[in-house]
Amino acid sequence: MENIFDLKKGLSRRKYWYYQCILFVFGLGIETFSMFVYKKSLIENNYLKYFVINGPFDFYNFLRIVFFIMIIIGFLFQARRFVDIGWSKFVALLSLLPLVGIITTGICLFKKGKDNKTDSSQVS
Question: Which UniProt keywords apply (predicted)?
Answer without folding.
Answer: Membrane, Transmembrane, Transmembrane helix
